[in-house]
């Protein structure tokens, strides 16, 4: 197995796009799984009240499980909620529960409301980590702002369909606002084309438009639409373990490899 470089400093990558269903969670889970299988120590922080990333990683997230909600609202240490992912030695998950939906409103009146996740991550020393992926909800509210304040990198999954670019300017504007006022280290480091259907002219056109707009930020690897990718979560698995030879698994492994190698020079 090829050695992948360990980042000089822990990389915190926020996966954001205020549109639902573009592949945020799938990307978070599968990049994390692929990196962990190449000896990188990885934490996935589930910041979506739906808890889809927790489900996909087989992490309990019933309403009474201590979750990111307690971390953000009650100041519970991250170490108390982080769980090892079954059968994945280097992979951990901080689960989300449905009460996180209320956190969006509860945060509004709280002290340092935008930087509560950052504080929790900075105080988390119990497990040495190479990567933290934050899986955002489909909105640009305070949960996503917390994720952007806690990270140096934003990864934008872009679904290869007609409205792909719509709404992206709003997302980029939010990244700019957070950079200007809250986190000068933040940048969009990565864009990833997801659910690509090679049979359609439209998908090729969208991919071309995205590359023209985002340039080298876009990973060369494109994630194909694949039934295996959508089946894996119902088995509590990444597609990387569920069907390693499938086109989706191989694409996510290639994307993770690109991130590991190009990021060797990324700092901050
Ligand atoms: P988001 O987190 O942005 O809402 P998801 O990652 O949950 O998006 O993906 C939305 C739906 O599309 C899910 O049902 C997921 O299983 C499915 N999906 C994601 N990526 C692929 C893919 N490459 N091929 C097929 N289905 C996919
Ligand atoms: Mg999601």
TrEMBL record:
Q: Look up the domain of life of the source.
A: Bacteria
| The AAA domain, residue ranges | 11-187
InterPro entries (alphabetical): AAA_dom (IPR025669), DNA_Partitioning_ATPase (IPR050678), P-loop_NTPase (IPR027417)
Q: What does this protein do?
A: May play a role in septum formation.
What family does the database annotate?
Belongs to the ParA family.
State the protein's name: Chromosome segregation ATPase
């Amino acid at each position: 197995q090829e050695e992948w470089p360990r980042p000089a400093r822990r990389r915190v990558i926020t996966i954001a796009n205020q549109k639902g269903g573009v592949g945020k969670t799938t990307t978070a889970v599968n990049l994390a799984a692929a990196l962990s299988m190449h000896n990188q120590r990885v934490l996935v922080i589930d910041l979506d009240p739906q808890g889809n990333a927790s489900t996909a990683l087989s992490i309990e997230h019933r309403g009474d499980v201590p979750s990111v909600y307690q971390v953000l609202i009650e100041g519970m240490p991250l170490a108390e909620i982080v769980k090892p992912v079954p059968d994945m030695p280097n992979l951990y998950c901080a689960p989300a529960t449905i009460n996180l939906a209320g956190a969006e409103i509860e945060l509004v009146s709280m002290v340092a409301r935008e930087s509560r996740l950052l504080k929790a991550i900075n105080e988390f020393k119990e497990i040495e980590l190479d990567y933290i992926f934050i899986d955002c909800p489909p909105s640009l509210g305070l949960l996503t702002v917390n994720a952007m304040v806690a990270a140096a990198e934003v990864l934008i999954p872009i679904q290869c369909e007609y409205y792909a670019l719509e709404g992206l300017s709003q997302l980029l504007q939010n990244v700019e606002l957070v950079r200007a006022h809250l986190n000068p280290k933040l940048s969009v480091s990565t864009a990833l084309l997801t659910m690509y259907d090679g049979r359609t002219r439209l998908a090729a056109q969208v991919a071309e438009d995205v590359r023209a707009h985002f340039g080298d930020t876009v990973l060369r690897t494109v994630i194909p639409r694949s039934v295996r990718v959508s089946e894996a979560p119902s088995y509590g698995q990444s597609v990387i373990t569920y069907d390693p030879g499938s086109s989706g698994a191989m694409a996510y492994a290639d994307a993770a490899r690109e991130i590991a190698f190009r990021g060797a020079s990324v700092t901050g």
